[in-house]
């Protein structure tokens, strides 16, 4: 009984380590076979349309609502201390530093990551990938790498749009609806938000999240068992794993970027 | 889908995304990090800096002219040594005084510079001699209470 349990644990561990190793080799293979994605940039543009442009609506609308809620809640709290002029700082800081990159990445993982996994998984299940190999077309260079770079390029743009839209939402609620002074809203925001500390770090975060999400999504699709259940399971795993990866990476990045700052 | 329409959409997406980044950079944030090349550093010693932190603004006449880049405890004179990085565009006389002030009652602390009348200007690595410490609220309240008690004492 005990021996069996230990055996099962050992088996799980070995499989897990094997998968991690396979995923890292897969990531290196994507980087090595990226030439085609740039030489035939049309392929990457096509994928940017599917993962970037088609995520625009959900990103813009969620950004607007997150910003509006921040405006309302922030006002409620700041009002207690009579410092509702700092609403601009609160909205902009929380969006640019954390919410923009993280929430946009979570939305991207569920909107585009799952689609990538399902697409690649089905291509594998219907043996399109094997057919390509038969024709001496490298599926990693032709199918996987363009999707990877499309995700990595789209992610920071989507995060920036999310933050900008959120700040606009906070402005709508704070200034137009509640009546915080417009001048102090923008000027306090400008004096507090720093280009390097806040905006650049937010962009770096979103690039890292883009790499993580697309790598996980592509790997799960490529690794999926070629059955209907296999593809559906892989799609679920993509969303779960990449969301967890985004949140964990966010903690690590934040710890490095903002440690020691007042 | 038609390839040109696809290209158009992706192009629009990239333009809008970069516009959002520019909006964040220019309208939301500001490049207020003073560069090394066009700035100079001076040191001011204080007996008590209160809650002053690095990156706090240095203002003169209310205008931001630099930032606090370093706060250290000087073990030789038992005082705080605060390094200020000032913009090269602004030169201050050698007898400029530095005071730690608070914006608002509970706001952030900053260093206020008041220009003196000397014709010699402050140079890199110079020291500001005339300083005024941060006002510690507890001391102030203590003084107030002490003063009131004296006033109320029987004569």
UniProtKB/TrEMBL annotation, chain A:
Listed Pfam families: MlaE
Molecular function GO terms recorded: phospholipid transporter activity
Transmembrane segment boundaries: 20-38, 50-75, 87-109, 157-179, 199-219, 239-258
Domain of life the protein comes from: Bacteria
Phylogenetic classification of the source organism: Bacteria, Pseudomonadati, Pseudomonadota, Betaproteobacteria, Nitrosomonadales
Annotated keywords: Cell inner membrane, Cell membrane, Membrane, Transmembrane, Transmembrane helix, Transport
Membrane in keyword set: yes
Membrane topology category: Multi-pass membrane protein
InterPro entries in alphabetical order: ABC_MlaE_roteobac, MlaE_Permease, Permease_MalE
Assembly behavior: The complex is composed of two ATP-binding proteins (MlaF), two transmembrane proteins (MlaE), two cytoplasmic solute-binding proteins (MlaB) and six periplasmic solute-binding proteins (MlaD).
Family listed: Belongs to the MlaE permease family.
Role this protein plays: Part of the ABC transporter complex MlaFEDB, which is involved in a phospholipid transport pathway that maintains lipid asymmetry in the outer membrane by retrograde trafficking of phospholipids from the outer membrane to the inner membrane. Probably responsible for the translocation of the substrate across the membrane.
Annotated GO CC locations: ATP-binding cassette (ABC) transporter complex
Name of the protein described by the UniProt record: Intermembrane phospholipid transport system permease protein MlaE
Compartments where located: Cell inner membrane
From TrEMBL, chain B:
Pfam families: MlaD (PF02470)
Coiled-coil blocks: none
Lipid metabolism keyword on record: no
A single MF term (Gene Ontology): phospholipid transporter activity
Keywords: Membrane, Transmembrane, Transmembrane helix
Boundaries of every Mce/MlaD domain copy: 39-116
Membrane-spanning residues: 6-26
NCBIfam families: OM_asym_MlaD (TIGR04430)
Protein name: Outer membrane lipid asymmetry maintenance protein MlaD
């Amino acid at each position: 009984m005990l021996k069996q349990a230990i055996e099962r644990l050992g088996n799980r561990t070995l499989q897990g380590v094997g998968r991690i190793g396979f995923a890292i080799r897969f990531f290196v293979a994507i980087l090595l076979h990226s030439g085609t994605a740039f030489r035939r940039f049309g392929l990457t543009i096509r994928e940017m349309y599917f993962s970037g442009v088609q995520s625009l609506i959900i990103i813009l609308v969620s950004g607007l609502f997150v910003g509006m809620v921040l405006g309302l809640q922030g006002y409620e709290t700041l009002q207690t201390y009579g410092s509702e002029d700092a609403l601009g700082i609160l909205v902009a800081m929380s969006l640019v530093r954390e919410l923009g990159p993280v929430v946009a990445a979570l939305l991207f993982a569920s909107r585009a990551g799952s689609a990538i996994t399902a697409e690649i998984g089905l291509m594998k299940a219907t043996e399109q990938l094997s057919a390509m190999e038969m024709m001496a077309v490298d599926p990693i260079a032709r199918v996987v790498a363009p999707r990877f770079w499309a995700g990595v390029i789209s992610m920071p743009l989507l995060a920036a749009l999310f933050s900008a839209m959120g700040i606009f939402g906070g402005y709508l609620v704070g200034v137009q609806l509640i009546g915080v002074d417009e001048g102090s809203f923008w000027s306090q925001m400008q004096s507090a938000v720093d280009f390097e500390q806040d905006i650049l770090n937010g962009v770096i975060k979103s690039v890292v999240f883009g790499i993580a999400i697309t790598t996980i999504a592509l790997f799960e699709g490529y690794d999926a068992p070629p059955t209907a259940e296999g593809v559906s399971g892989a799609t679920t795993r993509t969303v779960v794993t990449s969301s967890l990866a985004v949140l964990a990476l966010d903690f690590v990045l934040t710890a490095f970027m903002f440690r020691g700052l007042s | 889908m038609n390839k040109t329409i696809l290209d158009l959409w992706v192009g629009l997406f990239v333009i809008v995304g970069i516009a959002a980044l520019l909006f964040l950079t220019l309208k939301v944030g500001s490049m207020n990090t003073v560069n090394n090349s066009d700035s100079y550093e001076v040191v001011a010693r204080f007996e008590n800096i209160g809650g002053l932190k690095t990156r706090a603004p240095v203002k003169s006449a209310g205008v931001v002219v630099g930032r606090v880049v370093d706060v250290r405890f000087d073990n030789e004179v038992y005082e705080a040594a605060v390094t200020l990085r000032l913009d090269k565009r602004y030169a201050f006389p050698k007898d400029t005084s530095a005071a730690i002030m608070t914006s608002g009652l509970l706001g952030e602390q900053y260093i206020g510079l008041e220009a003196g009348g000397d014709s010699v200007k402050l140079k890199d690595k110079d020291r500001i001699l005339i300083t005024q410490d941060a006002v510690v609220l507890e001391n102030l309240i203590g003084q107030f209470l002490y003063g009131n008690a004296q006033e109320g004492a029987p004569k």
